[in-house]
Amino acid sequence: MSDMKKAVVVGGSNGIGLAIAENLIRRGWRVIVLDRCEGDCAMLPEGGWSYVPFDLLEFDGDVLAPLAADPDVGLLMVTAGVGRVADFEYFHTAEIERTLTVDTVSTLKLFRVFYDRIRGGEPFYAGVMGSIAGWMSSPSAALYAAAKAGVVRFVESVNIELEAAGVENRILDVSPASFKGSRFYGAENDLAQLSGLAEDIVTRLLARETRFIPQYEETFRAVLERYHDDPHGYGLHSYRYKHESGRLDNQKRVVIGYLSGTFDLFHVGHLNLLRRAKRQCDYLIVGVHDSGKWKGKETFIPLDERKAIVGACRYVDRVVDACVEDSDAWDIYHYDRLFVGSDYQGTERFRRYEAYFADKGVKIVYFPYTQGTSSTQIRNLIVKRTKEG
Ligand SMILES: NC(=O)c1ccc[n+]([C@@H]2O[C@H](COP(=O)([O-])OP(=O)(O)OC[C@H]3O[C@@H](n4cnc5c(N)ncnc54)[C@H](OP(=O)(O)O)[C@@H]3O)[C@@H](O)[C@H]2O)c1
How far does the centroid of ligand 1 lie from the alpha carbon of residue 147, in Å? Predict the structure, then answer.
């Protein structure tokens, strides 16, 4: 073990994670920021941090394992999170899945990967952003409240397990109400605005406290008491407050993607195509063609089997029978993005599609089709082997 203390901040490219990273660097920690992109990491003191790409929607334990095994890493703070204030009917099932995956499922998995360190004999500091919404009902933020309640209850429960095991380490649940200076509600990062909160959080993290609700004594002790005394009355009041204060973001906020193909002799190029498409949308619908022909030849694999293979791919949310024209599929699925191989760009068919979609807000995304073995190569190999007997 070296003298350099390392901290992992998941979600540290923006908002309170960025401010916590800054605070830790000033205290002499070297911070490893894990996030979807580098965000505003350039605001951090030079030389005190490094960045590792990490997407909680594509949980990759192989990125985390070396960090969890590194004896110099002595702190894990999870600040990555998503959510919005909207009535439940405005959430597509894809957004429900995304929110619970980021805020709850992947967050718990992170703690599991680091749990041997947390449960070990050495000091290890661990914390996560919950939310006051996780401590009571939050009408018009029902999904977010459910996601954060999962985090809050997890921390509360597992801390008892740690105590019972005679371990000193704890996980800190930070459960604030709305705060400013982050990108959560669409504003810019403002470290000056967040530095006080970050200081309070890090101080409690290093003291291995278990719960921090900012302004608890001044405000939230009474709020929580009111809620516990009369949850129904409190819920109605909270609902009215959100509706009257204009805080609602009542719109459907999901990008639906569509692509179609034959997917005969499924290969890595198909997989790459589906993965790239899913990165650019929230919900991917794949139409499988029942052409019976594949570039002038019969398909090798029957339609039902091709659909089953495509449907088993984790990037695909729904498999359907493809319409002959992708523009006809839009009439049924109202997708926002149409993904297609770049070799189709400029063809008569796609010029027609571009004209058709011009007033429908649909973006046609062209990308290179295959990397790796192609269907043609596989097909040629099968034909060759068949001839050879
Ligand atoms: N802001 C508030 O008023 C408030 C109140 C109570 C609790 N909280 C909680 O505090 C935490 C931090 O909030 P904040 O206000 O600092 O928000 P923020 O500025 O939006 O920062 C959140 C960070 O999480 C990252 N993130 C989102 N999805 C991710 C994913 N799939 N994989 C990896 N990283 C991902 C974001 O990256 P991208 O920007 O690339 O998406 C961003 O860097 C959240 O858990 C939030 O629920 C916030």
Answer: 13
* Cα–Cα distance, 379 to 147 (Å, whole number): 47
Instruction: Count other C-beta atoms under 10 Å from residue 385's C-beta.
Output: 9
Residue nearest (by alpha carbon) to ligand 1 atom 46: 81
6-244 and 256-388 in the same fold: yes
Task: State in Å: Cα 80 to ligand 1 middle.
Answer: 4
CA pair distance 259, 257, nearest whole angstrom: 7
Q: What is the overall mean pLDDT for the chain?
A: 93
45 DSSP assignment: P
Mutate to test the pocket of ligand 1, among 14, 155, 223 (most ligand atoms within 8 A of CB): 14
> Could you say which of 3.40.50.620, 3.40.50.12780, 3.40.50.11030, 3.30.450.20 is the CATH number of the domain covering 256-388?
3.40.50.620
Q: Cα–Cα distance between 184 and 133 in angstroms, integer?
A: 15
Q: Tell me: pLDDT of 206 over 90.
A: yes
pLDDT of residue 8: 98
Rg (CA), the chain: 25
What are 342's two structure tokens?
Answer: 């770049």
CB of 11 shorter than 6 A to ligand 1: yes
CA 288 to CA 272: how far, in whole Å?
A: 16
- Taking the C-alpha atoms of residue 50 and residue 68, their distance in angstroms, rounded to an integer, is 16
Tell me the fold of 6-244.
Rossmann fold (3.40.50)
Give the position, in ligand 1's atom list, of the atom nearest the Cα of 80.
24
Q: Is 201 in the pocket of ligand 1 (CB under 6 A)?
A: no
Domain ranges of the chain: 6-244, 256-388
Q: How many Å apart are CA 84 and CA 184, to the nearest integer?
A: 8
**What does the pLDDT look like over 90-126, one tens digit per residue?**
999 999 999 999 999 999 999 999 999 999 989 999 9
Instruction: Say if residues 83 and 13 touch (Cβ distance below 8 Å).
Output: no
Write down the pLDDT at residue 1.
Answer: 57
According to the model, what pLDDT value does residue 105 have? 98
Per cent of the chain over pLDDT 90 is: 84
Low-confidence winner among 100-114, 340-354, 360-374 (lowest mean pLDDT): 360-374
| Span from the CA of 155 to the centroid of ligand 1 (angstroms) | 18
Ligand 1 centroid to 85 CA: how many Å?
14
